Amino acid sequence: MNERRPEYKVTGSRRKWAVLAVLTLAAAGLASPWASGRPDGLERVAEDLGFLGREAAVHSFSPMPGYEVAGIPWEAVRTGLAGLIGAVVMAVLLWTALRALARRR
Amino acid sequence: MHIPDGYLSMEVWTATTVAGAAAAGYALRRTRTALAQPQVPAAALAGAFIFAAQMLNFPIAGGTSGHFLGSALAAILFGPWAAAVIMSAVLIIQAVLFHDGGITALGANILCTAIIGSFAGYGVYQAGLRLLKGRLQAAASFAAAWVSIVAASCGVALLLALSGAAPLSAALPAMLGWHALIGIGEGLITMAAAAYLTERRTSLAPEGAFA
After folding, report:
1. Where is each PDGLE domain found (chain A) (predicted)?
2. Do A94 and B44 touch (CB under 8 A)?
3. Residue B187: exposure state from Cβ atoms within 10 A (0-12, 13-18, ≥19)
4. Closest Cβ–Cβ partner in A25, A64, A101 for B31
5. Is B82 inside a domain boundary?
């Protein structure tokens, strides 16, 4: 039996993807300094069940630990800049890697 | 829900590093056929959006916060294999550049959020669309996102228990409880983003050929 079924395809609208790009930059650069500083789900469980103390740094080579760019006096700028850098690195890395991988046509 | 260094025992992090690398490698191979060139800019942008949205912790009950995960959203838009690659890339950048999530725990984090999260989300979304005969995409997206983050949190609880950090009888209900709450936020964001970024098309499809 055939029937009409709606399908959902990823939009090709350039405007919508441009809106997502603006939202991404606003979230990473402007909103991120005001994110909640409360422990997240896993940290809370670690606290409650008493294994938070197991955390141990095995390296210190991250250039922006804790999502902050060092050497800037304003916390909001430290965090916002780290967010912007991360979002741009993310897009460039994925674009490069996926362009090399994805099928032609 | 990023496992830091130290939470996992050496046996567990060694095993999950090997398994996580193998799973990510296989996902890369599958992405060669699962993703087409015209989808690349959108997939890269979605990855950047997921990274940015993960920074925005929102307060939930009891002095705790949660943040968006994005595995289900990526899987709804680009399928589970490409989603696993996108989520693995997010985890690698977070661990290397921002010290968020351990290096020894990277394989475990990839298994839980990139693999379990993406496939649980994709499975529930497809099952939901089938069940609802393609109507109510929002309900399918919400359920997919909720199940995906809860499933990922169960994976983390299991690895914590195997590592001797806490007994499973305590870790599982605790992780499940908090992430059932965080999952509501996950569901709402995924529902809105998936509705905005997809277009509904009605086509004449033979029974069972809906994909």
Report:
1. 14-102
2. yes
3. buried
4. A101
5. yes
The one-letter amino acid at B94: Q
Tell whether B149 is covered by a domain.
yes
B104: domain CATH number is 1.10.1760.20
State in Å, rounded, how far the first CA of chain A is from the last one: 33
Token couple for B108 = 């475990």
d(CA B43, CA B29): 16
One-letter amino acid for residue B32 of the chain:
R
Residue B51 domain boundaries = 10-197
Is residue B210 included in any domain, yes or no?
Answer: no
Pair of tokens at residue B87: 């989520």
Is there a domain that residue B67 lies in?
yes
Task: Say yes or no for a CB contact (<8 Å) between A67 and B205.
Answer: no
Neighbouring-strand partners of residue B203: A5
**Cβ within 8 Å of residue B13, ≥6 positions away:** B104, B105, B107, B108, B163
Residue contact B49–A105, C-beta within 8 A: no
Mutate to test the interface with A, among B76, B199, B203, B210 (most CBs of A within 10 A): B199
pTM of the model: 0.94
Please report, in tens digits, the pLDDT of each residue of chain A (105 residues total).
445 667 899 999 999 999 999 999 999 999 999 999 999 999 999 999 999 999 998 888 899 999 999 989 999 999 999 999 999 999 999 999 999 999 986
Kindly state the tokens that stand for B142. 């919400």
Complex ipTM, two decimals? 0.94
